[in-house]
From TrEMBL:
Involved in cell division. It holds the Pfam family CrgA. It comes from Georgenia faecalis. InterPro entries: CrgA. Residues 1-23 are annotated as: Disordered. Belongs to the CrgA family. HAMAP family: CrgA (MF_00631). Its main location: membrane. This is Cell division protein CrgA. It is found in: Cell membrane.
Length: 81
């Protein structure tokens, strides 16, 4: 019985390496830190003034504003490279 021809296998080529992630702009970290500091200061002032400030008239929503600014700064740190 005749012997079958062997198949030629292509040589192994590894998958391409992914590109390195881009570095964050130089203003990214200072902006995140400033936003977190402003948010913390906003919450502290709200507690000290018993919800009558920093924006008078919105009451306890001052806490929500402070925490929102704080969270924006925190979320910026998650995207920092």
């Amino acid at each position: 019985m005749p012997e079958s021809k062997r198949r030629k296998k292509a040589t192994y080529t590894p998958p391409p390496t992914p590109a390195a992630p881009k570095a964050s702009p130089t203003w990214w970290v200072p902006t995140a830190v400033v936003l977190m500091a402003i948010g913390l200061l906003w919450v502290v002032v709200t507690y000290i003034l018993q919800a009558s400030g920093p924006i008078p008239g919105i009451g306890q929503w001052n806490l929500a504003v402070g925490f929102a600014v704080l969270m924006v700064g925190f979320l910026m740190t998650l995207r920092w490279r």
